[in-house]
């Protein structure tokens, strides 16, 4: 598929694509509106571990790492259920054939590992009240926007993208689902000074996965032998996860995602943006990010 083309033609008999709607100053798929009160009223438990990211920033990767750490490197235990059943997505409204993420989480025994894409200011208050641990992963804007664009194409329920140029401009302006990338990464970066947040960078994870997984193990309060760490590194490689039906979302109904358009796990690299950005777009985004992140101390690498 040509990334610079428009969104293409989609079968109108398929599930309706969401539109964007502002909720508390942030744009979300309109399907969240009816369930927003339930999401905000979510009852966290003290031993919950929340994985939070901006969409397409390495969410599934860190979920699988945490799951492998939780199960002490035992892939068979991890593979008993698809990743979206192991770790409820609390932002998700009911969507046939699934119940809402909140309902799914409420039915789970503790300790729970949960997933969210919510910006820090909209996280349900119970997470702060219960002092829950949060693992946050941030990815450079260029690779993030390319991955998000492709995801919109393969998802049958996300809003339409428009052209690549339009999507890029909307991404930078925060006019996409879950809002502004810069506000998201900056908000969570600042939150780590006040709350138990482990802030990781996608690029660091690609550069030295063992080093970053050690941080996760320590943050989760565990000690694992080097042999188990090596197992976790091996089974959470992109190639391993892409071939694992319990991690690659291929078990979702085709009415929700179409892997023939683009696989859910597409590239998993740092620097793929170079195949999609013009020089002018690259320079514009560099300048814009520098302004948006100014004074935060946040620095992103766009290649390693």
TrEMBL record:
Entry keyword Cytoplasm: yes
Pfam families: Sulfotransfer_1 (PF00685)
Cellular-component GO terms for this entry: cytoplasm
Subcellular location: Cytoplasm
MF terms in GO: sulfotransferase activity
Gene3D superfamilies: P-loop containing nucleotide triphosphate hydrolases
Domain Sulfotransferase intervals: 46-297
The organism's place on the tree of life at top rank: Eukaryota
EC code: 2.8.2.-
SUPFAM superfamilies: P-loop containing nucleoside triphosphate hydrolases
Stretches assigned to coiled coil: none
Keywords, alphabetical: Cytoplasm, Transferase
Keyword Transferase: yes
Similarity remark: Belongs to the sulfotransferase 1 family.
Protein name, UniProt field: Sulfotransferase
Species in which this protein is naturally found: Podarcis muralis
Gene name linked to the record: LOC114582243
């Amino acid at each position: 598929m040509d990334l610079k083309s428009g969104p293409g033609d989609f079968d109108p008999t398929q599930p309706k694509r969401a539109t964007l709607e502002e909720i508390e100053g942030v744009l979300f798929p309109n399907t969240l509106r009816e369930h927003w009160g339930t999401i905000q009223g979510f009852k966290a438990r003290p031993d919950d571990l929340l994985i939070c990211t901006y969409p397409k920033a390495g969410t599934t990767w860190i979920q699988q790492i945490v799951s492998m750490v939780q199960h002490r490197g035992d892939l068979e235990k991890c593979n008993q259920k698809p990743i979206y059943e192991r770790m409820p997505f609390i932002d998700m409204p009911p969507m046939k054939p699934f119940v809402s993420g909140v309902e799914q989480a409420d039915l789970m025994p503790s300790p729970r590992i949960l997933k969210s894409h919510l910006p820090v200011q909209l996280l349900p208050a119970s997470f702060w009240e219960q002092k829950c641990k949060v693992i946050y992963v941030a990815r450079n804007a260029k690779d993030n926007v390319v991955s998000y664009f492709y995801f919109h194409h393969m998802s049958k329920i996300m809003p339409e993208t428009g052209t690549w140029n339009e999507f890029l401009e909307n991404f930078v302006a925060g006019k996409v689902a879950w809002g502004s990338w810069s506000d998201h990464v900056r908000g969570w970066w600042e939150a780590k000074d006040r709350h138990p947040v482990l802030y990781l960078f996608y690029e660091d994870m690609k550069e030295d996965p063992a080093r970053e997984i050690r941080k996760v193990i320590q943050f989760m309060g565990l000690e694992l032998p080097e042999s188990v760490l090596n197992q976790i590194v091996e089974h959470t490689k992109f190639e391993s996860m892409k071939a694992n039906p319990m991690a690659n979302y291929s078990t979702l109904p085709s009415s929700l995602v179409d892997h023939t358009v683009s696989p859910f796990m597409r590239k998993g690299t740092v620097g793929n943006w170079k195949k999609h950005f013009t020089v002018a777009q690259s320079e514009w985004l560099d300048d814009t990010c520098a302004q948006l992140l100014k004074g935060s101390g946040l620095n992103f690498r766009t290649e390693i």
